[in-house]
């Protein structure tokens, strides 16, 4: 499962039970950076390795991952929710 956060003005969350598409994973890896590839694909050592492993076996994807597509950010669920809540609080304060 991964969670897609479209933005505070639109859809707040779109929870996907399936693994992301290869294009979505490419974006997620770009947002995280190559050093974090192993945090979303088991035993991946970088972006290219993560994509290769994912294409061979989608079950290597480590869920949950939260993606803020509008702001090009990705992270583990708790980390991203805290960031989004903090930004929302700043907006209303």
What tags apply to this protein structure?
single chain, four-stranded mixed beta sheet, alpha+beta, 93 residues, 40% helix
Summed up, what is this model?
This protein is α+β, with helices and mostly antiparallel strands and 93 residues long. It contains 3 helices and 4 strands, in the order E-E-H-H-E-E-H.
Morphology call: elongated
Identify low-pLDDT runs. none
Give the class from helix and strand content and strand pairing: alpha+beta
Radius of gyration: 13 Å
Tally the helices: what do you get?
3
- Provide mean pLDDT, rounded: 80
Strand content: 15-25%
- Cα distance, first to last residue? 33 Å
Order of helices and strands: EEHHEEH
User: Percent helix among the residues?
Assistant: 25-40%
Largest sheet: 4 strands, mixed
Number of domains: 1
Q: How many β-strand stretches?
A: 4
> Which strands sit side by side, in order, in the main sheet?
2-1-3-4
Question: Could you explain how this protein is built, in words?
Answer:
The structure is a single chain. Helices cover 40% and strands 16% of the residues. It is an alpha+beta fold and 93 residues long. Strands 2-1-3-4 form a four-stranded mixed β-sheet, sandwiched between helices. A hairpin with a 4-residue loop joins strand 3 and strand 4. It is elongated.
List the helices and strands and how they pair.
Elements (H helix, E strand, L loop, with lengths): L1 E4 L8 E3 L5 H11 L14 H10 L8 E4 L4 E4 H16 L1
